[in-house]
Amino acid sequence: MQDVPGTLEDYLARYNIPTFTVSTDNVKDLKRELDYAYSGMLTDNRRSNDTIQSRDILALDLDNINPSINTPDKLFNGLTELLGALEFILYPTIKNGLEGYGLRYRLLIETPPLLPDTYILVAKGFIYGLIDKQILTSNWDESTTRPAQLFSLPVRNQFTQGEVITYHQGAKLTADAIKESLPSFKALISKYEDETDFNHPPTNYVKRNADPTKGAYWLSEITQGIGEGRRNNTMYNFAWYWLVCGMADLGALPGLYDFLMTINQAYFTPPLSDAEINHIFKSAIKGYERVKERG
Predict the structure, then answer these.
(1) How far apart are CA 71 and CA 60, in angstroms?
(2) pTM, rounded to two decimals
(3) Of the candidates 43, 46, 60, which has an alpha carbon nearest to the alpha carbon of residue 146?
């Protein structure tokens, strides 16, 4: 790996952002042409799970953005509302705007040097915080929290409008701030990893855990009524759960779609439009299929 001096902001300011015309046919090949980075301390300048001493940039893939957040401005405003005065950097990734993918962005936050285990905890805390505030949906890629994971640098494609990199000026994430946030990070991780599980069907889940299944959790939430601000994300997550449970493999997609339409009319205020339901359902199916392909 090549060492690069200076701060992250200095490096990005002089980085020559490449431009590509991307399609579903060439996107995999184009990903091999991108520049990738890592920021932290490595043993012998080699990057592997065993050589990571520390990492000092939180690089989160925002691939599973809530379908209701459909413009870069909405995404930036949502992040600003959640992260408050915290400094962060946001830029699109190669698939951004491509049909079937929607918004695809990367969020960078500079941190003090974090040991690998602490990095995982902080990264998951931020991811689940984004899910909790309905900026992201629940089908996120766990590789984004791995300490050894590279992150791609900014890229411009035919869907990019305006400046590629957006900076939110603010306070640095300090060691004291992280220490104060660890209990809330752990609570979020417990909420989404211990109490709920998207990766097992209900029967397996009950055998492993006497708590209610995730399906029961969503039904309980929905039957209490879902108002504006929660409708899209709730519908997406509910559809996603039943896809993971095997509805697609059983050939039961029409039945699942009818079920979504029924609960929408009965419990969502105001109900989502048919076009919104169609978009959410198709997005959930595509997301589920991509996760299956990754194995």
Answers:
(1) 18
(2) 0.68
(3) 60
